[in-house]
Each structure stands twice: as C-alpha cells, then as structure tokens.
Amino acid sequence: MVKVRLREIRNDLGWRLRRYRANRARAQSKAVFIGITGSSGKSTATSLLGHILAGHGTVHTQVLANTLNALVRTLYKRMKRVGEFDYVVFEAGAYEPGSIRGMAQMLKPDVALVTMIRLEHVGKFRTLEAVAQEKRALVDALEPGGIAVLNCDDPYVLAMAAGAKCRIATFGQFGNADYRVTDVYAAYPELLRLSLHWRGGVLDIRAPFPGEQFWLPVAAAAAAALELGVPAEKVVARLASFEPLPNRCKVQKTDGGPQFLVDTAKAPWHSIDLALDMMAKARAARKCIVLGQISDYVGSTRKYGTAYGIARDIAEEVIYTGDNAHRSRASQADRDSGRFVELRTPKEVSDHIKQTAVPGELILLKSSSNLHLERIALAWTHDVRCWIPACGKKEDCQTCGLFDVPFQEHKSFVADRRLERRKDRLGRLLGRLGFRRRS
C-alpha cells in the first residue's frame, strides 16, 4: 500500500514538473501558436495548414495526438530551444468537459480555428450546446491581437464570435464570409476543386481529395494561412501538393485490382451521409460499400438500417461487418441476390473481397477505428497477419506497424525489437569509446 502511494506521489510530481517545463517553454517561444478544434475535419485542417506553413517557415505540426498530455510533451520536449520554430500548429480534441480549456490555457494560441460543431462523445456532452461550449474555450483563450478563424456556415461556430476579444475571420459557402467558397466539385476519379473568394481576389484551388466534403478543411486551412500572411500563390501550390492523411478518405489503388476509399479513422453518424454521397458521385465500373461501426448518435441502432437503405441504391454490393452487422434490416431478397452481405470479422470481409472484386471496382471502407478496416486495403499490398476483430489499440494499423505480425505475438515482437535497439545503442556507445565488437 505504501509503495502504491509513493508511486502515485512520484507520478504526480513528475506530471507537475512536466507541466511547469511546458509552460516555461511556451512563455519563452517566439513561434506563432495555432490551435485547431472541431467535431470533424480538424485533423485534416491541421495537417493542411502545417503543410502550407512549411513552405513559408519552420513548423511543428501536432496532429491526431490531441490531448493535454500530448501538448505538454510537445512543449517541453520540442520547444527547448527558443526560435526553433516559426509556427506551432496543434490539434485540440475534446473528450470530456474541461479538456479543451486546459489545453487552451497552456497553448495560449495566437490563432484559433474551429471547423464545425456536431454531437460527439455523446455520453460526456449530451447536447450540441455542450460541445460548442467546450470548443469555444479555444477562442476565449485568444488575446486581443489574436485571430479566430470560424466556419460561418455553422451557427454554433459563428456564435463564438460574440463577445470575442480578438479579430474574426470567417469562411464558408453561405452568407458574407470573409473567405467564401463556391464551385465545389469532386467526382472520383476527379479530385476536389473549388474557388475561394477573399479580399485579394479569387483563388482556384485543387486538392487531392475524392469527396466534396473536404472543401471545409481546405478552406479553413487556406483562410488561416492567408490571414498569417502566406502569399496566395504559395497557398494554392501547397494545397495541390498535400498528401492526405491515412484512413481519412485516402485513395489506395492496386495493380489490376480494386481501388479503395479508406475512411476508417472515425464514423460519427453525421459523417455517414457525406461518405455515401461521395460514393454516389464517384464513377467506377462497379461499387462496393463496406460499413462497420457507427458512433456518436442518439436513439436506437435503427440508423444501421437507414444507412443500408441509402447505400443499396449507390453500390452493387453492400457489406456490413462488426457487432452491429445484423442491424441492416436488409431484405431476404437482397441477401439472396448478393446485394447485401453480412460478415462478422474484417478477415471474412477481406477474404470475400479478394474472391469477388473486379479490376477497377471502387470499394468504400467506412467505420470507426476500433475495427481497423484499413487492414482490408492493406491486405492487397502486404501480408496482413493480424486479424483480431478488435485489438483495442487506438492508433491505426499503419502507425502500429505490426499488421504483418499475428496479434498474439505482438508483445514478444515489440520486446525483441526493443532489445535489439538497446544492443545497437550499446554497440554505438562502445564504438565511440574505442571498443570493437567481436565478430
């Protein structure tokens, strides 16, 4: 009991020390700090803005790892040398009430960008108003000289301008946006294009996204970059050269096989229509939709049936997988004809697609991250051997890197790899000291 208590005290003191160092590093840094939040689009907007600014100065972009722990680690490890970066772009995620406020107070952003407000983490927030109040903390942390870049198409986001002490820059498709988006078009294989109207004229923007819904993070990042003084021609060029994030509607092509739209990072209910609309507008010889776990919705699980009703009119084949695969409400006729297929595990889906896919077929993989449906696409180019239905890991399979190792061997594999790295470090140290390894 005493040992447990001592460990708790040591951990608490360590956390306090890291926070102190992080706050000191933030105070000493001369970088422009940019915080980005929102219910969807924030990871892509963060990566896009970081990519644009990297052509204009030195940048540290913190994406996906979007908690207070990640911010503390970034500040006290990365900001040790004053002047190391011109810009720090940080994605702030809300996972419970108060989570954004703590990050905002430490980040002290010069720019705050908010993409949209949707119902997320339903068990914690319950209402859209609660989500909006949480996200607003990033805007409230701005000083009078700061800039809030807000989506004026979203009333919950636009309301954050009321009472703000800083300058406001709005973007959107409607109203009197400072950065107004028109002529949005994408129909895969034709990728996203749009026009951005601003005080400097009109920008014709191309970005490597297969769906029209990506206009929002593109416009958000462009607006923030232009507000920060990046030349318009550089903004356009950097957007065109961006490499999309893995598993966020990223296209994966295979030689002589199908093409995958991999959208497996998250699947809140409000995103399902967007993904299905993207598939409806896409052009392909044949279409298949694989739907896994849907998240962040209130009410019954009948939404799986609603999604199937839309998907069956878009694709020649719809596959449901995961614990809710039986909730499709697909007719027996659809099951008998093969229009609907119910498969419980990602491995079964992968085997089925390998047997039935035709060259040029377009396959959408849409699910929350817990099922790791990205393995289905990876299996066309790699020897995927980790097929546990739900591994419990939060990072995607590409980040984990162990998809070619059976799940039950992960711990021993990681331990062996760690031991090899220690041996290599010891060898290098001994080499510097003048010792030679025995052959």
UniProtKB/TrEMBL annotation:
Keyword Protein transport listed? The answer is no
By its UniProt entry, which InterPro entries does this protein fall under?
A: Mur-like_cat_sf, Mur_ligase_C_dom_sf, Mur_ligase_cen, MurCDEF_CellWall_CoF430Synth
Keyword hit for Ribonucleoprotein: no
Q: Which domain of life is it from?
A: Bacteria
What molecular function does GO assign, one term?
ligase activity
Q: Name one Pfam family in it.
A: Mur_ligase_M
Q: Which keywords appear in this protein's UniProt record, sorted alphabetically?
A: ATP-binding, Ligase, Nucleotide-binding
Q: Which residues form the Mur ligase central domain?
A: 36-225
Return the protein name: Mur ligase family protein
Species of the source: Mesorhizobium argentiipisi
